[in-house]
Amino acid sequence: SQGAQFTTISPVHEVTRAELQLAHTEQFISDIHYKSSMIAQAAEMYMLRFVPSSFLQSALVTPFKWHTSGTVLAAHMALKYGWAINLGGGFHHASSARAQGFCFFADITMAIQYLWKYVDEDLNFMIIDLDAHQGNGYELDKFIMSLRQKKKVYVLDAYNKDIYPMDEMAQNFINTKVELLPNTSDDEYLKQINESIGKALKEFSPSLIIYNAGSDILNGDPLGGLNITEQGLFERDRVVFNFAKNYGIPIVMLT
Fold first, then answer.
1. Helix (H, G, I), strand (E, B) or coil at 98
2. Most buried residue among 33, 69, 102, 187 by CB atoms closer than 10 A?
3. Sign of CA dihedral 166, 168, 170, 172
4. pLDDT tens digits along 28-57
């Protein structure tokens, strides 16, 4: 609205080791800091394995740490104030023991574990992942959660079924799965998104919606394989935020 107020805030530090430990194994934390091969795998640029790790830390790992810290901060702010957007994050292919698909840290899992530990262990989370790719990272993290925690995380994942990562193991931990055909266009896409979110919110009552809003659904994206216009993308985001508003649920958007 015309009178809306927006405040820009930034993390005061990159994600800490203690925060990394909420989502990652000790072996992973060590490898991502000292092994060029791990960083090369995450970046999908295998020649980087021959680059000194110290250089890759400053060029790649540290920026991703700031993005990850932004996700944790934005999730906390959304819970407190109703909504927040992190201009970054959404690293949905990273899991507790693996970095892949341009995703270095499991920021979605980390935000959930952070809020359980420092705010309220009874919080319920709904992940709405509308990136063109399946979010297999946090789905695999859900697999290793306790039964109690599993029940507190609901996953809605809409993705092009014919592209990376096609992770069948991870798909077992999706509550509402929307498998899109290649070249899906606006009308069909928005119909499926509307229906699936409506269904999900009838099945589960979240304390916070974590919305991974990938823009790789746009037509012409070399990796997404869908056929969504800019107007379709804007409408998608409006639909998600309207659901959150109408149900009175705080929402954090990752971009």
1. strand
2. 69
3. positive
4. 999 999 999 999 999 999 999 999 999 999
> Tokens in use for 127?
């992940």
Helix axes 36-43, 26-34, angle to 10 degrees: 90
CA dist., res. 169 & res. 177, Å (int): 13
Q: For the domain bounded by 65-254, which CATH number is listed?
A: 3.40.800.20
Check: CB of residue 96 under 8 Å from CB of residue 128.
no
What separation in angstroms does the CA of 67 have from each of 118, 145, 228? Answer: 20, 24, 26
Angstrom distance (rounded) from CA 95 to CA 245:
30
Q: Which of 74, 119, 30, 36 is nearest to 211 (CA)?
A: 74
Would residue 67 show up in a list of annotated catalytic residues for this protein? no
- Count of CB atoms situated within 10 Å of the CB of 8: 6
Per-residue b or e along 200-225, where b marks 16 or more CB atoms closer than 10 Å to that residue's CB: bbeebebbbbbbbbbbbbbbeeeebb
* pLDDT tens digits along 182-231: 999 999 999 999 999 999 999 999 999 999 999 999 999 999 999 999 99
The count of C-alpha atoms lying within 13 angstroms of the C-alpha of 13, restricted to the half-sphere facing its C-beta, is: 5
